[in-house]
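Researcher: Sequence recovery benchmark, item below. Answer with residues only.
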């Protein structure tokens, strides 16, 4: 399944059947039947929930941000094609190769046999909506395009390495160019020299040009959104700061944006969403740029601002924070009626 098909699984707040779910779990304290092990689990859940509710709520500098309410992706089957690797499949579908391996009981370095059916789970939270333009969440390695206030497309991206970070902030599209020569910046020439590589100053369009065929220049000096000749690098922090797209996604985005299209790069590792049916999802990514983000505190602040603290299962939330696997997981408290919603695969 290509990423266009992946995006077709958009889960909007009123589309409940495609979303993951948890089995309801009303646990009664009956030590004679379950013994100390069950009581321990109940105590552990209570302590975790108490710890969650006791977390300080950081004050927002301005009004609290609107809570996300849209999920994209889901669970589907990918049939392995010749040449597929866990890395290539993960890059195309916005899921870490290690997670893909775990979901399918494989070793991280497993060689895939063509025709094998793999389960892919790539549920993600759309951080927020824009009236128009491009939203890129750096830790999430995702780009979202909005048109007329609606999500039009979503794509995994590669962004700057931790030692060469992509800057956060607003921007607008200032150029669109096909087959742009790469004028190698002096800083990258210096890196080539340090690494003992041939020092290039200009790379003409073609199979060796790392910009691919499509260049969308941004108002941030020296930065752009472009294709790539290394598609397996997508959904990673692998660039010198620019935003890379799979060649097919770069071509699609190129046709939908114009000079003047606004955009924003944000750095939000911890995401919380409440769907229209009341279910709550959390998604946590690694703080790759070491910005000092406390994911648990961020989620608590979002929940407190939205009045959702008593609707969140502290143990489930703590597990999402611990795993930091970059997937949206349901954290609705199991005593909530919304937790009993039926439909969709488990995450």
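Model:
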């Amino acid at each position: 399944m290509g990423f266009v098909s992946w995006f077709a699984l958009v889960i909007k707040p009123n589309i409940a059947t495609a979303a993951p779910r948890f089995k309801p779990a009303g646990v009664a304290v009956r030590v004679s039947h379950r013994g100390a092990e069950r009581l321990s689990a109940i105590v552990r859940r209570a302590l975790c929930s108490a710890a969650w509710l006791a977390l300080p709520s950081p004050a927002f500098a301005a009004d609290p941000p609107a809570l996300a309410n849209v999920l994209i992706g889901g669970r589907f089957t990918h049939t392995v094609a010749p040449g597929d690797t866990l890395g290539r499949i993960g890059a195309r579908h916005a899921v870490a190769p290690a997670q893909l391996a775990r979901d399918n009981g494989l070793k991280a370095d497993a060689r895939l046999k063509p025709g094998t059916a793999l389960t892919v789970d790539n549920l993600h939270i759309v951080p927020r909506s824009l009236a128009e333009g491009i939203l890129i969440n750096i830790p999430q390695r995702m780009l979202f395009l909005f048109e007329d206030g609606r999500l039009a497309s979503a794509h995994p991206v590669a962004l700057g390495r931790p030692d060469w970070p992509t800057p956060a902030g607003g921007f607008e599209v200032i150029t669109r160019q096909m087959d742009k020569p790469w004028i190698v910046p002096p800083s990258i020439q210096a890196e080539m020299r340090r690494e003992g590589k041939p020092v290039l100053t200009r790379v003409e369009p073609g199979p060796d040009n790392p910009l691919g065929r499509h260049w969308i220049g941004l108002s941030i000096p020296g930065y752009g959104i472009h294709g790539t000749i290394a598609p397996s690098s997508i959904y990673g922090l692998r660039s010198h700061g620019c935003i890379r797209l799979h060649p097919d996604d770069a071509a699609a985005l190129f046709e939908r944006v114009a000079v003047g299209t606004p955009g924003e790069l944000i750095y939000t590792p911890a995401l919380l969403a409440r769907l229209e049916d009341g279910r709550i999802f959390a998604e946590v990514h690694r703080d790759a740029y070491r910005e000092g983000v406390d994911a648990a505190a961020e989620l608590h602040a979002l929940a407190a601002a939205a009045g959702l603290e008593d609707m969140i299962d502290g143990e489930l939330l703590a597990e999402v924070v611990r795993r930091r696997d970059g997937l949206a997981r349901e954290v609705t408290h199991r005593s909530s009626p919304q937790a009993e919603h039926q439909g969709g695969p488990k995450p």
